[in-house]
Every structure is written in structure tokens, then in C-alpha cells.
């Protein structure tokens, strides 16, 4: 129903996504995950025909979105994280407008609008202005517009964003009902919801697919060592030592458990054997109360973090490099400013000294000139006196 083949989007020298390939079957709900900047939105924008790819193809119901965009878009319903609604419209008025855009026949509109509003649970606000609705209701109106025209593929970006816990449960039920008639690609940061709703998950990291499988299979592959979780009632005995003494136990790790009077351990076996029966016997033999014993299931959050750890580390490293370069730049500018200031001060001081020297020189010249004049005057006076005496 939805097929992506070697999809690539390049901006200059940067790859937003690179050689992404996956397919989604009819009636399947697939979670589309990845850290910020992994390429999720870019991929969804290409699939919906909002932007073009640099290389590769995206087909909806066997129709290439790049070669036949109008035909392909008739098979797509898209609800972005920010609902594309007009706040000055009434809910019913807006949805009727969307029907016109999608080319829904007038004779079919009333029935379709009623079905879609009932499904999205917005029938009670159909005559209200969208701008006066809560964020949760606006989110539902965004979902309703995506459903109009009954597209075969529905793409939902953060559909539970802004919803309260009760509304999230209702939205979960709506999405499950939609899968009976539609293929759904769902993007969300609420991984617990993804693990409950989706049949399969695709995890992107740094523009490429890091994993694509069911949550159950991913969890199983991550627990390749067959690790078990053991919870035992607190005792005055050294429980960790007792567990480690078993010949088939490889490692025992004490977990932080906030349950009163209970201790939890991750126990990893040697040679991937199933330790549950042996641990049960150990507890019986040592008179320990066993509260919980099960094969360890990795959560989707743990799987996600492990698969995207490299990307997160690189991003942090890159950020640290940028911050270091920024600080170095500041220091260089600071030193340059200081150097310029010192040079200016030195220049000013030199000019001041030269000015003082010049002034002193002028004073000296003036003094010498004054002395010379005084000597000349004195000599002239003497001469005049002498002439007076002669006369």
C-alpha cells in the first residue's frame, strides 16, 4: 500500500535522509520513530508530496507521488503535529470546505461528515468556532480533515499531542478502528503509545533506518543473553551472593527498586540458558520469598535510546565543539580587543610624550629667546647710557 524505495534528500552537502527503503501493508499500523533531526518529517513531507526527493521513489497504492502527485494525493490523508485548521471557521464549515478541496461529491458529503465527526468525536462541537476550541479538540478536527475522502493511507504526526489521558485512550481506540479500512503511518515521541498501538516500528537515526520490526521481536533480539528479572522479598541473608553461587549464573546486577521490603536483580545466565527454574529452586532451598520472576523485556524507550545513542553522542560532541569554537572565538576577540586597546594606549602615551617634549622644547626656545632679548635690551641700555655720558 505504501512503498518507499532508496529515498534520499540532500541539502548542499548534508543528507537529511539517505537511501531509506520500507513498505507498509494494507491495514498495518506502523510507528515512525527517531530523535529530532533524524529525518522523520522530511520523509513524511516527501511521501505526502509537500517536497520532492533528491533520489528514490515513494508510491502510494502503486502511484508515484512525484510522477502523478494529484492522483497519489487522493489516496493520502495527512494530519501534521500542528493541525491545518482555519480558526475563524466553524468546525462543520471547515470540514465541508475540505470536502470541496478533496473533490468529494455533494451527495456524499453529509453522510461522510457525520461519519468522520462521530469517529473523531467532535460532533458536539460542530457548530463552534475552531479558534474557541481546546488544543485537544483542534487535534481531533485535524484528524477529521485527514479522514475526509476516505484515503487508503493516513499519516499522523503526533496525533496525541495536547490530549489529556482520557483523550489519549480515545485516540488510541480511534486509530485501531481506522486500521480496519486504512494503512497508518504514525509518528510520536510517546513511545509507550507506539508500543501499544503499532504492529511494527521503524526507527530512524541520522537519516537512515536503524531498525524495522515488531516491538516484540526487537525486545527479544535485545535480550539475546536471555536475561531474567528477579524480585525477592527482603531478607537478612545475602541474596546477591546466593544467586551468584549458582554455576550457570554469569552476572547479577542489583536494580534500584523503590518497593518497600523487596529487592530486584537482573540475572544474566551463561550460554543463554533459561534460568527461571533454577532460580525458583534456589529461592525454595534458601527459604526466600520469590515475588517476581520473568524473562527481561526491554522497553521501547530502552531500545530507542540504545539504537540512537551514537547519533545522540555525535550530536552532543558536535554541540560541544561548536560551543568550544564559540568560546575560543570570544577569547580571540577579547585578546584582539585588549591588544588594540594596549596599542591605542601606547600610541596615545607616545603622542602625549611627544606633545610634552614639543611643548618643553617650545618653552625652552621661548626662554632662550626671552633671555636673548633681555641681554640685547640690557646691552642697548648700557650703550645708551654710555652715549649719554659722552654727551
H/E element sequence: EEEHEEHEHHHEHEHEEHEHEEHEH
Fraction of residues in helix: 40-55%
* Unreliable residue stretches: 312-329, 383-391
CATH superfamily of the largest domain: P-loop containing nucleotide triphosphate hydrolases
Distance between the termini: 140 Å
Query: Major sheet: size, sense and barrel closure?
Result: 6 strands, mixed
Give me the CATH fold name of the largest domain.
Rossmann fold
Counted up, domains total: 3
- The largest sheet has its strands arranged as 6-7-8-3-9-10
Give the name of the CATH architecture of the largest domain: 3-Layer(aba) Sandwich
Secondary-structure content class: alpha/beta
Name the beta content range. 15-25%
Q: How many beta-strand elements?
A: 14
CATH class category of the largest domain: Alpha Beta
- DSSP helix count? 11
**Average pLDDT value?**
83
Coarse morphology: globular
The Rg value, from CA coordinates, equals 40 Å
Assembly type:
single chain
Could you walk me through the main structural features you see in this protein, from its secondary elements to its overall organization?
The chain has 391 residues and is α/β, with parallel strands linked by helices. The chain folds into 3 domains: 2-220, P-loop containing nucleotide triphosphate hydrolases (Rossmann fold, 3-Layer(aba) Sandwich), CATH 3.40.50; 224-300, VP9 protein domain (Alpha-Beta Plaits, 2-Layer Sandwich), CATH 3.30.70; 356-391. 48% of the residues lie in helices and 22% in strands. The protein contains 11 helices and 14 strands. The protein has helices spanning 40-47, 69-73, 91-101, 106-120, 135-147, 165-178, 191-197, 215-222, 239-244, 276-285, 300-390; strands at residues 2-11, 14-24, 29-33, 55-60, 63-64, 76-79, 153-157, 183-187, 200-205, 208-213, 228-233, 249-255, 262-269, 290-295. It has a 6-stranded mixed beta sheet with strand order 6-7-8-3-9-10, with helices on both faces. Strands 2-1-4-5 form a 4-stranded antiparallel beta sheet. Helix 4 crosses helix 5. The radius of gyration is 40 Å and the shape is globular. 28% of the residues are buried. Mean pLDDT is 83; it is low at 312-329 and 383-391.
Amino acid at each position: 500500500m505504501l512503498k518507499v524505495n532508496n529515498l534520499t534528500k540532500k541539502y548542499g552537502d548534508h543528507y537529511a535522509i539517505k537511501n531509506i527503503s520500507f513498505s507498509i501493508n494494507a491495514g498495518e499500523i506502523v510507528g515512525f520513530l527517531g530523535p529530532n533531526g533524524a529525518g522523520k518529517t522530511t520523509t513524511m513531507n516527501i511521501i505526502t508530496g509537500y517536497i520532492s526527493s533528491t533520489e528514490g521513489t515513494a508510491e502510494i497504492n502503486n502511484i508515484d507521488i512525484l510522477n502523478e502527485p494529484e492522483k497519489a494525493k487522493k489516496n493520502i490523508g495527512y494530519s501534521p503535529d500542528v493541525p491545518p485548521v482555519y480558526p475563524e471557521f466553524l468546525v462543520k464549515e471547515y470540514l465541508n470546505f475540505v470536502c470541496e478541496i478533496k473533490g468529494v461529491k455533494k451527495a456524499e458529503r453529509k453522510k461522510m461528515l457525520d461519519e468522520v465527526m462521530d469517529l473523531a468525536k467532535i460532533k458536539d462541537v460542530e457548530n463552534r468556532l475552531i479558534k474557541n476550541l481546546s488544543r485537544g479538540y483542534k487535534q481531533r478536527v485535524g484528524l477529521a480533515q485527514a479522514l475526509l475522502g476516505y484515503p487508503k493511507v493516513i499519516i499522523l504526526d503526533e496525533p496525541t499531542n495536547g490530549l489529556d489521558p482520557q483523550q489519549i485512550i480515545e485516540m488510541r481506540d480511534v486509530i485501531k478502528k481506522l486500521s480496519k479500512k486504512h494503512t497508518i503511518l504514525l509518528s510520536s515521541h510517546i513511545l509507550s503509545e507506539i508500543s501499544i498501538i503499532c504492529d511494527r516500528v521503524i526507527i530512524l537515526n541520522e537519516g537512515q533506518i536503524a531498525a524495522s520490526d515488531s516491538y516484540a521481536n526487537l525486545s527479544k533480539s535485545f535480550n539475546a543473553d536471555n536475561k531474567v528479572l528477579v524480585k525477592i522479598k527482603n531478607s537478612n541473608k545475602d541474596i546477591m551472593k546466593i544467586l551468584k553461587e549458582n554455576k550457570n549464573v554469569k552476572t547479577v546486577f542489583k536494580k534500584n527498586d523503590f518497593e518497600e521490603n523487596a529487592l530486584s536483580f537482573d540475572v544474566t545466565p551463561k550460554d543463554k540458558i533459561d534460568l527461571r527454574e533454577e532460580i525458583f529452586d534456589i529461592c525454595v532451598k534458601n527459604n526466600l520469598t520469590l515475588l517476581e520472576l520473568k524473562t527481561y523485556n526491554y522497553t521501547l524507550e530502552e531500545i530507542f535510546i540504545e539504537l540512537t545513542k551514537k547519533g545522540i553522542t555525535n550530536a552532543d560532541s558536535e554541540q560541544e565543539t561548536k560551543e568550544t569554537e564559540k568560546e575560543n572565538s570570544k577569547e580571540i576577540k577579547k585578546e584582539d580587543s585588549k591588544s588594540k586597546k594596549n596599542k591605542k594606549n601606547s600610541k596615545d602615551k607616545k603622542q602625549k610624550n611627544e606633545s610634552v617634549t614639543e611643548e618643553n622644547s617650545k618653552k625652552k626656545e621661548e626662554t632662550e629667546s626671552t633671555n636673548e632679548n633681555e641681554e640685547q635690551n640690557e646691552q642697548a641700555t648700557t650703550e645708551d647710557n654710555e652715549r649719554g655720558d659722552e654727551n
